[in-house]
Model the fold of this input.
Amino acid sequence: MGNSRLIGVGVGPGDPELVTVKGVNCLRAADVVVVPVMDSGDRGRAEATVLHYVPEEKVVRVVFALNERSDRARREAAWDAAGERVAGLLRTHGTVAFATIGDPNVYSTFTYLAQTIEHLVPGTVVETVPGITAMQDLAARSGAVLTEGTEPLTLVPVTAGAGALKDALNGPGTVVAYKFGRLAQEVAAALRETGRLDDAVWGSALGLPDESIRTAAELDGAPLPYLSTLIAPARRDGGRGGKL
Done:
């Protein structure tokens, strides 16, 4: 048997139609498709998307303590167990696909898994298939333009607190915030303080039945879903092509 292959497939932000043709082909061609699940056992977004394209018997659920932030030892143990599980699959199957929401190279669990597998099953060929990101989907659904002309784009995960977000909002260009559900109040405050509340747009569950897209000004401090996305567009004046 030749080298086994581990392919990280980006399956987009939730809308099953936003999986690329290449992504679908990879999922279907793989011997098994691994989906990350929370230790609660709830069906995650990646799994729900994958099941539109491959039969359930080909899907292997592997527990990743994705929501474990407080107990580092517990998180490391969960990672090791997940890595061992995927390593076992790679030793018995030619090609294992790992489905990740969004894109496998953007804040994805796949990065850590690939590093673990390189130690556990040396010689494994690791590849990724890009996926549509939540910021692209929110831009499309809300009409918010991400970048124009020479504007920079800053992507900030708010898991580490709102400080980095505030710094970015004080700078030029468009700012996108990910994973800020628990800190919605701090995010709204940062937008207000930097004068960027009015143009900003927020969204969650994009493309799914419980989709919610609102202006940031409507954020009332109530807790939001963890996987929430915010776009604060660049300050634009000068009309069409003002930044060209």
